[in-house]
Structure formats: structure tokens, C-alpha cells
Amino acid sequence: MNKHGGYFGNKKEVIDFSININPIGISNEVKNVIVKSLDHIGRYPEIDGMTAKKSIAEYEAAHVDHLILGNGAAELIYLYARALKPKKVLIIQPTFNEYKRAFKVVGSEIYECIMDKANDFLMDTHKIIDAIKEIKPDVLVFCNPNNPTGRYTSRQDFQPIVEALDETNASIFIDESFIDFAGLPSYKSYIENQSVFILRSMTKYFAVPGMRLGYGIGNKTIIRKMEAIKEPWTLNCFALNSVDALIHDKEYMLRTKQWFETEKKWMYKSLKKIKNLHVIESHTNFFLCQLLNHTSKAIQEKILQEDIYIRTCEDFTGLDDTYIRLAVKEREDNVKLIPCLKYALMI
Length: 347
Description:
By secondary structure, this protein is of the alpha/beta class. It is built from twelve helices and 13 strands.
């Protein structure tokens, strides 16, 4: 099992900066839906979640046949791998490590194109195209904005990669789980291309990770392949009934936008002032940072003494034990982190 964020230790009151979840928390609208859904627990939910799927189709201005629901985005990563069973997979690294595991499970040969840390992991188009020409992958995996680097790649910069992949008839898997935070253009218009699949998570932006809710947007051919092997009833009534409330809660989205724009800017400026810490610019609700004279594990342990938990990143391909990832939280929590981190890095 791969390592992920989340504190599961013995301390009771810990501020957890290792998880990239909207700190505003679950909306009251969704809470009300969950309570009402208790009356539905005695019967099966829709086997295909069609009502929820229609709501998302309207929200995304997409046809319902281009959508598939998942028990979190993670289910769809594994389902996609099982549906396509590609021989060769090229993953742009560093990135979320469940992609690699999912394709390994189905016997794919994994290739990795690691972006340069000296350039703060910006997309290197030429390096990726060279790798495509050499490897001739069946699938390219790309996260945008990327976890854990927070980097976003524009369609203009990605287009040459798409063209290189077209020459090899490769499919493209694009994870946009953090796109709602970024407020930047999605790649979903690419679904007109038969080979493109877009993954979305609803649990991070809407702060419902325990609900397990995600969806994918793709060409009908890809969706049908995935639906053909998908287990029935993978989403419960609480998740399915909450979809409409989630995507129509404009007040919640406005509050999130205001929080994100203010706190991300404050957090970046505050982190930049700390010595022995290199902060990478981010387009989403977390920052990847490199420790200049310390190991991530040592700093994690020091910070935990102050009841603050951070994510070490040695398990990401292309990173090592000098990197940490910090979520952006509410100001009260962010203010507690900065002096603790500053003090730990001075020792």
C-alpha cells in the first residue's frame, strides 16, 4: 500500500498540514442531505448513479455518456488501468504514486519521465517528447495541477505533447483533482479526442474525503470500456444524494475562492521568509518545499512536538528526504505553523 497524507498517531489535537483538503469543511447543505439520506439507507442506491451523473453532466456541460462515477478518484485510476491494460505506460514525475501502482497491478511496463528539480519541476516539453519517441507508450499519465509540486501546465504548452502522442496512437490520462482550487482552464475539451480521459475528485475541494466521490470525463469508447468492468453499487446513497447539493452550493464556492486567494498568497510570502527553506510556487492548495540543511523526517518529528503534522515526500519518484508538502489551511492554523517551522529549521 502506498504512503499518503493524514495523521493517525496517538495525539488528539493535531493540526494536519499533510492533507490537501478544503479547510472550510463540509457545507451545511451537504450535512442536511446526509441526514435526510439516513431514510434511504434501507434500500439500494441507484446501481449506476444516473441521477447524480445527470447533475454532473449539466455542471460540466458534458453529455452523460461521457461521464463515469467513482468511489473517490482512486477507484477510477484503477478502473482505467484495468479497462485499458496498456503494455507501456509513461508517467510524468514526481506525482501521485497510485498511478504507478494501478498500472503495475495490471502488468503494465512503467516508464517515468522526471522533471528537473533545478527548474522547480516545471513541465519540460522537449524531454517528454523525446521520451515518447523513444518509448512509444500506450498511455501517458499527467496530473494537472500536479500533486505534489503544485505546478500547472497550460494547454498551449501541453499541445506539442498531444501531437507527439497522436503519432503513436497513445491514450492520455489527465488527473485534474485540484483544478477547482486553481481556477485555471481544464483540459476537458480534449475529450473530443478519442484517447483522452480526465479525472476529477470532489472530495478535496468540497472537503468530503470520507464520502469517497469522484468522476471521470472521456470519450464514449473509453467510458464504455470502464463501465463494462465496473462493479455495481460502488457509491452509497450519501455520496450520490450529495452530488447536486455540492455542485450547486454557490455560497460555498465563493467562500472557498476568497479563502484560497487570500491564504495561498499569505502562506507563500510567509514561507519565503523562512531561512533554509526553498518554496516552489503553486497553483493549488499546497506547497512543495525543499529543506536546505535538514531531513524531512527530522523536521516532521520536531514540528509534531508542537502538535503540527506535515507530509514528508521521500516516497515520491524524483523527490528525496529533503522535501516536505504543506497544505494551505485557515489563517489561525497557518499562523501557528510558520514560527514552528522557522524555529525547527534554525536548530
